[in-house]
């Protein structure tokens, strides 16, 4: 018997007022895989992420997580089930320290020993943060802030991690670091859905890929196949 997908999204429709933002989109995130959604600004990527995590109401559609319907669950219930978002723009608590931001990631948990274990685990992912634990988030570099945003999400003990534009605005060396960490997270048992404008890095680290344009799903396939597609190369890879 085939195991259910980590996420199964069917006929998702999201509008902003009367303006269509996402139009009848269906896609899946396979268990054990990193899946990416690639598209230009305004293609519906962030809208989709917000709808999946209950931050934005969908007009219609169904979302299942490991075979269970989660369509109408509120955000806090989704986090408890293990669906956790790293939002675009990081959205840190800037006046709080790094340690306090990481504590906020675990605010729904009561398993103190497991929380302590996960804190050590995320600091192995992001060793640069260990010396910054008492530093306010506002005083960190952009790359360090992105590390805190991902680490905070991991402190919620996600089963499915959604990352919305995690490399935007970062220096190339930091982009490579974030990409390596995302791959490590995937190898360690967390299913990943990645949204990116940086098609090259997204396709390099993913197994499955979808291309969005103007709120519609226009291409799907393995990341390798899409990376080798002349159409994708012209439109997104500058080749």
List keywords for this structure.
239 residues, alpha/beta, six-stranded mixed β-sheet, four-stranded antiparallel β-sheet, 10 strands, 36% helix, 26% strand
Number of strands: 10
Gap from first CA to last CA: 42 Å
The Rg value, from CA coordinates, equals 17 Å
Low-confidence parts: none
Percent strand equals 25-35%
Question: What structural category do the secondary elements indicate?
Answer: alpha/beta
Strand order of the largest sheet: 6-7-8-3-9-10
Overall spatial form: globular
Helix content: 25-40%
Can you tell me about this structure?
- With 239 residues, the protein is α/β, with parallel strands linked by helices.
- The chain is 36% helix and 26% strand.
- The chain has helices at residues 45-52, 75-81, 98-105, 112-125, 142-154, 172-187, 199-205, 223-227, 230-237, and strands at 7-16, 19-29, 34-38, 60-65, 68-69, 83-86, 160-164, 191-196, 208-213, 216-222.
- The strands form two sheets. Strands 6-7-8-3-9-10 form a six-stranded mixed beta sheet, with helices on both faces. The chain has a four-stranded antiparallel beta sheet with strand order 2-1-4-5, with helices on one face.
- α3 packs parallel to α5.
- The mean pLDDT is 92.
Question: Secondary structure elements and their pairing?
Answer:
Elements (H helix, E strand, L loop, with lengths): L6 E10 L2 E11 L4 E5 L6 H8 L7 E6 L2 E2 L5 H7 L1 E4 L11 H8 L6 H14 L16 H13 L5 E5 L7 H16 L3 E6 L2 H7 L2 E6 L2 E7 H5 L2 H8 L2
Parallel strand pairs: 3-8, 3-9, 6-7, 7-8
Antiparallel strand pairs: 1-2, 1-4, 4-5, 9-10
């Amino acid at each position: 018997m085939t195991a259910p997908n980590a996420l199964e999204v069917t006929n998702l429709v999201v509008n902003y007022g009367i303006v269509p933002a996402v139009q009848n989109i269906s896609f899946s995130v396979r268990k054990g895989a990193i899946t990416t959604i690639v598209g230009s600004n305004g293609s519906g990527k962030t809208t989709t992420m917000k709808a999946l995590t209950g931050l934005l109401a969908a007009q219609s559609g169904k979302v299942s997580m490991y075979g269970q319907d989660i369509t109408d669950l509120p955000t806090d219930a989704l986090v408890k089930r293990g669906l956790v978002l790293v939002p675009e723009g990081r959205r840190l608590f800037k006046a709080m320290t790094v340690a306090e931001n990481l504590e906020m990631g675990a605010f729904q948990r009561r398993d103190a020993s497991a929380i302590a274990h996960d804190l050590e685990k995320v600091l192995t992912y992001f060793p640069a943060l260990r010396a910054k634990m008492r530093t306010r988030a506002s005083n960190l570099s952009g790359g360090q802030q992105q590390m805190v945003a991902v680490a905070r999400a991991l402190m919620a003990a996600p089963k499915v991690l959604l990352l919305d534009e995690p490399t935007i605005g970062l220096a190339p060396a930091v982009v490579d670091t974030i990409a390596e960490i995302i791959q490590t997270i995937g190898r360690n048992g967390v299913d990943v859905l990645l949204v990116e404008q940086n098609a090259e890095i997204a396709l390099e680290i993913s197994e499955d890929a979808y291309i969005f344009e103007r709120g519609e799903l226009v291409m799907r396939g393995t990341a390798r196949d899409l990376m080798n597609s002349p159409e994708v190369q012209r439109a997104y890879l500058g080749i």
